[in-house]
Amino acid sequence: MNDQLQIMEIIDRASIPIPPAPLVQVARAAFVKRTTLETDVNVSLNLDGSGTCKAATGIPFLDHMLDQIASHGLIDLDVQAIGDLAIDDHHTNEDVGITLGQTLAKAVGDRSGISRFGHFIAPLDEALVEVVLDFSGRPHLSYNLQIPNQRIGTYDTELVKEFFSAVVNHCQMTLHIRQLQGGNSHHIVEATFKAFARALRMAVAIDPRRASRIPSSKGVL
Fold first, then answer.
1. Which residue, among 76, 70, 60, 67, has the nearest Cα to 27 in the 3D structure?
2. Torsion 156-32-190-166 (CA) sign
3. pLDDT averaged over 10-residue windows placed end to end, the chain, 221 residues
4. Cα–Cα distance measured from residue 154 to residue 59, given in angstroms and rounded to the nearest whole number
């Protein structure tokens, strides 16, 4: 009789479903150092951060925009750059974009588990800017901003496109930027960076239903 009870107890225990092991979140952080004859750029980031930013590029307005990416994307970001600013801001601005793109690509790895797509429309007073992005593995930038002034302080507004082009090409991202409204140059550009940050935050978020798979029907990005 005791043997029968023990057998029944073993069967009952075997019928109890065992919960799956919890997913272990691998740190999604990366560091890239890029040095040329024109600039020396160091970027580190943590995609699962709290939005802290340390930016010292020598270009105050660019530092302010990098802070928007960190704060609204909830990315811990550290960008340190030394460049040939005596010539102009172009090389430093572009090389910061290149290195940021490389660091993002390194942090997402093969892109397993990410949501992949992101979309946000950000207002800033009269300005309204839409950003849509896809970690597609295919670099493409569609840029439609009408910035009325050539400069915001000392920052050349042509460099906004150069920055995003550099990020896109080195992160292998599809990025669409579209201005819906706006007349103030500062507001337009800042709304763009805020919308980019929120779209980026959405795209790199882990999809719990596909946490270990690459988000593509091809199985590769």
1. 76
2. positive
3. 52 51 67 98 98 98 98 98 97 98 96 94 98 96 98 98 98 98 98 98 94 71 68
4. 9
Alpha carbons 105 and 97: distance in angstroms, whole number: 12
Tell me which H or E stretch contains 82. strand 76-83
Q: What pTM was estimated for this model as a whole?
A: 0.87
Report the CATH number that the domain containing residue 196 is assigned in CATH: 3.30.230.40
Task: Give the span between the Cα atoms of 127 and 199, in whole angstroms.
Answer: 17
* Residue 121 backbone dihedrals phi, psi, to 5 degrees: -115, 120
Note down the domain range covering 141: 29-210
Count of structural domains, the chain: 1
Whether 22 is covered by a domain: the verdict is no
